[in-house]
Each structure stands twice: as structure tokens, then as C-alpha cells.
Amino acid sequence: MSLYYHKRITIVPKLLHLNIGTHGWSLSLGTRRAHITRGSGGHGRASVRLPGGFSWHRDFRRR
Questions:
Q1: Intra-chain end-to-end CA distance of the chain, in Å
Q2: In this structure, is residue 26 part of a structural domain?
Q3: SS (H, E, C) 13-54
Q4: Contact indicator for 40, 26 with CB cutoff of 8 Å
Q5: Using one digit for the tens of pLDDT, what is the confidence trace for 7-41?
Q6: How many CB atoms sit inside 10 A of residue 26's CB?
Q7: Judging by beta carbons within 10 Å of its beta carbon (0-12, 13-18, 19+), is residue 2 exposed, middle or buried?
Q8: CA distance 63 to 2
Q9: What is the DSSP letter of 10?
Q10: Does residue 11 lie within any of the structural domains?
């Protein structure tokens, strides 16, 4: 049996969130349609939700 923990803390409403979980933390900046996420391990993701159920994302790492 595994136990997981996840907590989302709103820093700026509808714009900036801090996500804390069992595997680390991440910051998310943007709206529900388009946002950038940066994690504690140096990884990140840019995501955009498009009309009609489509979405686009790009993963990147800090160098």
C-alpha cells in the first residue's frame, strides 16, 4: 500500500500556485488555458489547452 500527499497553495489567485507533494514541489504560473510549471528537480513544462479538446505541451530542463 502506498501513501501519497498533495497540497496546492494559491499565492496569487488564478495566476500563481505552489504545489507540494510526496516527491517534491513545483510552481505553476498562468491560467487554466496556458501555464508554465517549474519543478524542484529542475524540470519544467509549458502547456496550452486549445479549443475542441486539443492540447500542446513542451517539456524542458534547466541547464
A1: 36
A2: yes
A3: CCCEEEEEECCEEEEEEECCCEEEEEECCCEEEEEEEECCCE
A4: yes
A5: 999 999 999 999 999 989 999 999 989 999 999 88
A6: 19
A7: exposed
A8: 33
A9: E
A10: yes
- Give the whole-angstrom CA distance, residue 63 versus residue 49: 27
What's the structural domain count of the chain?
1
Q: Find cell 510549471 and name the residue.
A: 37
pLDDT given at position 63 = 65
pLDDT-derived band at 1, boundaries 50, 70, 90? low
Residue 9 cell numbers, joined: 497553495
Question: Is 1 part of any domain?
Answer: no
Domain ranges, residue 56: 6-61
pLDDT number for residue 23: 87
Let me know if residue 45 belongs to a domain.
yes
Here the cell at position 18 is 505552489
